[in-house]
Amino acid sequence: MTTARVPRLGLRANLAQFSLLVAVNALVGGVLGQERSVLPLLAEREFGLTAYTAMLTYVLAFGITKAATNYVAGTWSDRYGRKPVLLAGWLVAIPVPLLLIWAPHWGWIVAANVLLGISQGLTWSTTVIMKIDLAGPARRGLAMGLNEAAGYAAVAVTAVATGYLAARFGLRPAPFLLGASYVAVGLGLTALFVRETHDHARLEAGSHTARADGRHDHLHAGLSTRDVFRHTSLREPALSAASQAGMVNNLNDGLAMGLFPVLFVSAGLSLGEMGVLVALYPAVWGLGQLITGPLSDGWGRKHLITAGMVTQAAALGVIAVADTFAVWAAAAVLLGAGTAMVYPTLLAVVGDVAHPAWRARAVGVYRLWRDGGFAVGAIVSGVAADLWGLRAAIWLVAALTAVSALVVAVRMYETRPVPPRGARDGSSGSGR
């Protein structure tokens, strides 16, 4: 008779599964990265789209569906378990590279991005939730740094690879065959090796302790889904500040996805140079989170987020005025560094504040607002670019980012939990 596996919290106690989930999220990021260098050029050269707003319809479709699916993913993860939701996300991804390869008109590209948004919402949200489940409270920033670093480093590597493949073999089909291979490997690893983590969240809920200052006393275990939405969106200061900052952060990324390649190529850069610039920002973003995630565990969350948003705004201003590869490269590094300061830290804030019993739903609501930024970014930057030009659109997004930093500075409080002395990695008891 076999003995049931007893869950334990902490990175050391769950190293094998945590490492596997890092690899799975790298594949999730790679599926997203297959589009980053190629689609804006495909829109212009093969489908004849000239209006920036029309070109950004794929970003809009992706952002709306990913945002909505994030919300559903959190609820379903609590109801049905984490692994089934992760598997469903990989299954939805199967047609995406095929649609991108064979699309006879732009509507197919938009349809592919609807499916991509659903897939990314299910897969990326669930890997976040599963890593928070496994890590425990003491190393939440490190856990999120590793998760997001893997995903966005893969976005960057894939953007470079697809830019090279496009320059060597054409815009289709070669770049998207790489995405198809990611989907096959991700589905196989998830089906065969990933284990359910819901019991780890239940274990943490059983030993959950309130803050000494009483700030979270109203955020008890029995909140309804409606109350979770209200607290995360509006009522709870740290959660709501994180939600708006996440939306503005991905508004930046929506701008970068849709308009940066066009700006760089229109300035006379080659496809290879454009691919490097497009990849540099998510590469620094991804790898930088290996530093900023654990840094937030030691220094705290609020000031790192505020400084990161200010850094992003400054970087966008430089991109708006630059016209050479070297200056754009420096600005891309700065933009990536600012985003790395913000991205894992916002997720850690949600994990800090939300009770383990409804944390998955809070992550879903936060990611609803955060990834809604893709859609907002597509609309705002596309309309602004059509009315006033590419550089004016970038200046507008820079200003919005600076305002978001001010909101965080005023509204958010420090959420980082102080672990008990000696609790180095958040490892916790093994029993129930």
Name of the CATH superfamily: MFS general substrate transporter like domains
Number of strands: 0
CATH class assignment = Mainly Alpha
Number of domains: 1
Query: First CA to last CA: what distance?
Result: 20 Å
Low-confidence stretches: 422-432
CATH arch. level architecture: Up-down Bundle
How do you describe this structure in short?
With 432 residues, the protein is an all-alpha fold.
Write structural notes for this entry.
The protein has 432 residues and is mainly alpha-helical. The chain has a single domain, classed as MFS general substrate transporter like domains (Growth Hormone, Chain: A, Up-down Bundle), CATH 1.20.1250.20. 77% of the residues lie in helices and 0% in strands. The protein has 17 helices and no strands. The chain has helices at 15-33, 39-45, 52-55, 57-80, 82-93, 95-102, 106-135, 140-169, 174-193, 198-206, 225-235, 237-266, 271-299, 302-321, 325-353, 359-388, 390-411. α1 packs antiparallel against α9 and α4 (57-80) runs antiparallel to α5. The longest helix has 30 residues, at 106-135. It is globular and about 60 Å long. Mean pLDDT is 86; it is low at 422-432. The chain crosses the membrane at residues 49-73, 85-102, 108-129, 149-167, 173-194, 303-322, 328-351, 394-413. It comes from Prauserella shujinwangii.
